[in-house]
Amino acid sequence: MTADGEQRTLEAISQDPRMIYLTRLKNAGDAVVGRMTKDQKQVYEARYCSMVNYRWSELEGFLPFSHTAIYRYRYGILSALAKELGEFA
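-> structure tokens emitted (89 positions)
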């Protein structure tokens, strides 16, 4: 591929609505993770960064948090992401 072809490909990708959305979502997610408390980060990493696809209800089996606390952290994480994306105030 020529330099001109590579440039056209990069421009097409940067203008693709799906790529724009995914980039925006990644940036928002990174911002939220950077502001998480230690406990929120522990729940986030167990749920989303694990090689095992744990359900929310399964997390209380090995995390030191109650069922209620896990769901409270879940709501906080998802709420912060929605706010970062401008989905609600």
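The mean pLDDT is 90.
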